[in-house]
Design a protein that fits this description.
Radius of gyration: 26 Å
Number of helices: 9
Helix content: 55-70%
Strand order of the largest sheet: 1-2-5
Largest sheet: 3 strands, antiparallel
Distance between the termini: 86 Å
Number of strands: 5
Amino acid sequence: MLRDAVSNIEKFHDYLKSRTDARVKDYPLMQDPLHMTSILLTYIFFSLYMGPRLMANRKPFGLKTAMIIYNLSMVLLNAYIVYEFMMSGWATTFTWRCDLIDTSNSPQALRMIRVAWLFYFSKYIELLDTVFFVLRKKQSQITFLHVFHHSFMPWTWWWGITLTPAGGMGSFHAMVNAAVHVTMYFYYGLSAAGPRFQKYLWWKKYMTAIQLTQFVLVSIHISQYYFMEKCDYQVPLWIHLIWMYGVFFFLLFSNFWIQAYVKGKRLPVKEEQPKLNGSTSEPLTVVANGKHVENGNGVHNYTNGKLVLGKVKEV
């Protein structure tokens, strides 16, 4: 039985190699599905188990500079990807209707293949989103939706560009996704820059709305296939999968919207003023009877309603 299973896996592997588009065979991570699957399984294990355990007894890392550089770099990368998708057909020769897979070695087809692979590879870079959450001990941000979205996208895209790298109408959702990520990583970059930029982040709530709009656009575009008199798209399976992808993620992100903003589980909490029986992280300075009074660690404390002060020194 084990021998039959191994034999079937080998046959499937050989079938994939025979079906892999020759134009994409030499790109990194495109030789077989094992490497990319291993990376994604490691990502899931790190995100949900190993990472939180490693950080359990450690202080969260700041990573402010690293996050600013990372997010702004992702803005530029995704903007470049959108531009390349446009120049590879969407702003030049595509009809935005029944655009077929280009099987030639024309400059435009090869350009589409390059940007399709770059989009695919960018999904591995985006795994750093979760790594930052783990290292900063923001485990509440690592939801099922977050992990599923980050692992599902690169896994499915491997199959897409392995078999149909110059995907025609099947590449529309990638271009839209990259455009959304320009906005998303710009927001994250401002957020990482510190409190002085908070006044520019009033549109946080609308990030999810932009994501939802993305899935509506993808679903509408791909749905055209079902209403055309004739469309000879070479791999109809991709059409059905992309439509299901758009609807499925629309439902997931809609549920997130309801939980976050309708039920209010992720609305910002108003900062409370310090109370007499509480404490604050602000340093306390008191001048009394000609003497400068401060507590030992620069933080004032209250015990049983009484102010506890530390050392007293002359001014």
